[in-house]
TrEMBL record:
Membrane-traversing stretches: 16-35, 47-68, 89-116, 136-159, 166-185, 205-225
Organism field: Arthrobacter ramosus
Protein name: ABC transporter permease
Signal peptide: none
Keywords: Membrane, Transmembrane, Transmembrane helix
Domain of life: Bacteria
Keyword flag Transmembrane helix: yes
Amino acid sequence: MYVEMRKLVNTRSSRWLLSSMALLGMLMIAVFVVVSATRGEPINVSMMLAALALPAGIGAPIISILAVTSDWQHRDAIKFFVLQPKRGVLLLAKYLAVATFALGIILLVCAVAFVASAGFSAIAEYELVLGDLAKSLWLLTCVTVIGTISGAAVASALLSTPIAIVFVLFQSFVFDSLIGLFAGNATPFLQSATLSNVLTEGGNAIAAISSAAIWIIVPCVIGVWRNRTRDVV
C-alpha cells in the first residue's frame, strides 16, 4: 500500500492535479473572505470548511482514477504482477491507498480552513465564529470519501485514465442534472449524488442504496473481474 500511496503524489499528473486543487482552494478562500468582508459578516469557520469541500470533491475522484489506472496506461502492470501475481491484492492495495489519501485530504482541508479563518480574522480584525462545524465536517467527509471510492470503482472497471475522468465528470455535472428531465420520480434512485445527499441532508434510504449500487458496487465488481482477467501486453 505504501508504494500505491507514494504514486499518488510523485507522478507528474498527480502533482498537477494537487496543485490545481490547492489553487482552487485558495480561490474559494479568497472569495469567501471577500464576500464576508463586503457583507460585514464574521469569518465563519464552518462555512469556509464547506466551501473547501468543492475542490476536495472534484479532485478526490480524479486522484483515485489516476491511482487505479496509471499502471495500465504505462504498462507498469507487468512489473507489479511479476512482483505480486495476485492481482486482487494489488487492486485492494490501490483501494486502501486512495481511501487513506481521502482521509488525509479531509485532515488537510480542516487544517487549512482553521488556519485561514484564524489568520484573516486576526489580520483584518473580523470576528471569528465556529458555526456548525460538525455538519460541515460531515459534508466534507461524505463528499470526499464517496467521491474517492466511486472514482476508484469506475476507474477499475474502465482501466483507462481519460475515459474514466470524462465518465466521472459527465456523471457528476451532466447526467445528474439531466436525468431528472426523463426519470421523474425515479431520479433519486439513479443519480450518483443521492448517496452523499441522503447522508448529509437525509432522505430516502432506498434511493441512497440504489445510487451506491449503480455507481459504486457494480463498477467495483466489474473492476475486480477486469483486473483479474485482462491480458497484459
